[in-house]
Design a protein that fits this description.
With 261 residues, the chain is mainly α. It has helices at 3-10, 12-27, 36-55, 65-90, 97-100, 109-118, 120-135, 146-170, 173-188, 203-206, 210-222, 229-253, 257-260.
Amino acid sequence: MFEPIQIIYRYRHMLYATTRNEIRARYVGSVLGAAWAVIYPFFYLGLYACIYTLVFRVRLNGHTSFEYVLMIFAGLIPFIGFSEALSASTTAVISNKGLIKNTVFPIELLPIKSVLSSSVSMAVGLIGLLIAYAAVGEGSLLDVLIIPIFVMQLLFCIGLAWLISSLTVFFRDIAQMIGIVIQFLMLVSPIGYTLDMIPKSLLPIMYPNPLFYIIEIYRQILFFHQIPWKSIAAFSLMTIVIFYLGHFVFSRLKPVFGEYV
């Protein structure tokens, strides 16, 4: 039961070093370098905010346009983290052929370091969001709950990364489809709208979407200063199932990775 946790703890130093190298490699050759980790989430927010406030003219009752933008950001940040982790981890195994037959390097770390390195933009955006909330006097003691929620999201993404990256070894079409899946999730996830804006007839479609719960948790804690116990319970259950299922599938399939990569 504790094997996947033990793997992360046992190889934590190796994981730290490889994740740091991957983060550095991501920005090598770019003019702005690591500054993209800061620019990307805020640029994404600007585009999203313009669409919803200027094109769709969505308004949140009892709140200013700036507060509505902060609410969008509270939903956009976890989506950015989820989508980048999913994109990066899909090819984590097939793009590291040289390490698969390496008897020293545990290949379970490949999807993990992809998730961790791709979560930098999310972490930076989350810090910026907390600073913005504090600046406008909307900060709360409940904000500290974001730390365990952030860790829970990482564990969920790691489990999903184990699952998706191992299946991609045998079904390469997954790597081509993942962009479409992310776009679909962006449309059906409540980033620019709240729960009460969703027609009741569409709620059954939302419930299987993990981003529905993640976004709701971040938004309720940061923006509405409430603890959404039901969403936390549902996402906690999803995290446990995906984390252990992903590790189970990965550990069973990894002995034959070398034959297909």
